[in-house]
Design brief:
There is one protein chain. This protein has two domains: 255 residues, Rossmann fold (3-Layer(aba) Sandwich); 100 residues, 2-Layer Sandwich (Nucleotidyltransferase, domain 5), CATH 3.30.420.130. 32% of the residues lie in helices and 24% in strands. It contains twelve helices and 18 strands. A hairpin with a 2-residue loop joins β5 and β6. α3 packs parallel to α4 and α5 runs parallel beside α6. The longest helix is centred in the middle third of the chain and has 22 residues.
Length: 391
């Protein structure tokens, strides 16, 4: 394990939320960035990684006393119990100690070599397998938590966050999968599951919200065909939403390596996050103390916290945005827990990205001070005109 620079664990307290497909796409995407990557599947009773990567007919080889992982590409190595089964329908009826022993073998007896990243796909829940891998891996960068929006899933996934807190395992962020459906014809968002459960849960536990991934039939087709979605249809808006959720993890990896990363597993430590109760955060792009004509070229963002019940402004924070590159600002504002952005002008592609991140967009506002714009919005008196910038 000392030859592996970064270790990410993909967790969820609920089954059927798309955790394995996210883990596969993350590992493949990291390898596409020129990184050397390992993908470890520790779902002993339901290994799906071989199917998702069309490797069902592959078997591992033994060299000396080491197990050679299956190669998906020159930069991506895979290990799964599925490679050791004689038949894909075989059932492993094992208790905890046996599962711990095989996971220990995957960690200590597999010749992973030098890796930039190891991505571990865990089974649902907080039982033997996640506990074993946390104990066996040593230093871990953190966990990526996968959920879907509905409360039925959120209740179980919250237990996963508590699991991380109790084990002092950092949480790198929450990804909300199956978050609405973006119509390919009109770009309107249809909420299949009600609510913003993943985003609210991230707020409640004071951990980063990495982004939302909408439901897309093409994603199901990619999984069935054994081809990672970001490679299957890289220009698809859903694939781009997945990449947008992954990009902060690559940045975080660099920050961890240089000792500049900040993340926590407990509440009330990160000033960028806020309690959700009756509160809303409105982002205003500002230039010369007034609304900027185009949100992507502003000097700073005014993050205005308001109480939805009293319609009073409780706090205003001025933040310097990252460099203006496609897809960066929607993700960054998502991480800052913004609920709404009021802008003068915005391109269609940016509007789609904000929709995928569950941030409401108000376009065509005039160049007023942030406080004036927010008060007008809260009182339903905000006047908006044409979209003054649509590139």
């Amino acid at each position: 394990m000392e030859n592996i620079t970064h270790k990410f664990i993909v967790l969820s307290g609920k089954g059927g939320v798309g955790k394995s497909s996210i883990a596969v796409n993350l590992a493949v995407w990291l390898s596409m960035q020129g990184k050397s990557v390992g993908l470890l599947d520790i779902d002993i009773h339901g290994p799906s990684i071989p199917k998702l990567l069309n490797l069902e007919d592959r078997k591992v080889q033994i060299k000396g006393k080491k197990i050679k992982p299956v190669l998906y590409s020159d930069t991506l190595k895979i290990m799964s119990i599925g490679f050791l089964l004689q038949n894909e329908s075989d059932a492993l009826i094992w208790r905890g100690p046996m599962k711990h022993n095989v996971i220990k073998q995957f960690v200590t007896d597999v010749s992973w070599g030098n890796l930039d990243y190891l991505v571990v796909d865990c089974p649902p829940g907080t039982g033997d397998e996640p506990l074993s891998i946390v104990q066996l891996l040593g230093k871990i960068d953190g966990a990526i938590i996968i959920t879907t929006p509905q409360q039925l899933a959120i209740v179980d996934v919250k237990k996963c966050l508590t699991f991380c807190k109790q084990l002092k395992l950092p949480v790198l962020g929450v990804i909300e999968n199956m978050s609405g459906f973006i119509c390919p014809h009109c770009n309107n968002r249809i909420e299949i599951f009600k609510g913003d459960g993943g985003k609210e849960m991230a707020r409640d536990f004071n951990v980063p919200f990495l982004g939302s991934v909408p439901i897309d039939p093409a994603l199901a087709r990619a999984c069935d065909s054994g081809k990672p979605f970001i490679d299957f249809d890289s220009q698809n808006p859903t694939a781009q939403a997945i990449v947008s959720a992954f990009e902060p993890l690559l940045v975080l990896g660099k920050q961890i390596q240089t000792g500049t990363a900040f993340y926590s597993t407990s509440q009330n430590k990160n000033p960028a996050n806020k309690e959700k109760q009756n509160k809303m955060r409105i982002a205003i792009p500002v230039t010369a103390s007034k609304l900027s004509a185009h949100f992507g070229h502003c000097e700073e963002f005014a993050m205005v916290d308001v109480d939805e019940q009293t319609k009073e402004i409780s706090n205003i924070v001025k933040l310097q945005p990252p460099g203006h590159q496609p897809g960066v600002l929607p993700q960054w504002l998502n991480e800052q827990q913004a609920d709404i952005i009021i802008a003068g002008g915005m391109g269609q592609r940016a509007q789609q990205l904000f929709a995928q991140n569950n941030i409401k967009v108000v376009i065509g506002a005039s160049d007023q001070a942030p406080e004036q714009l927010v008060k007008a919005y809260l009182n339903d008196t905000l006047e908006t005109g044409d979209n003054i910038c649509d590139h």
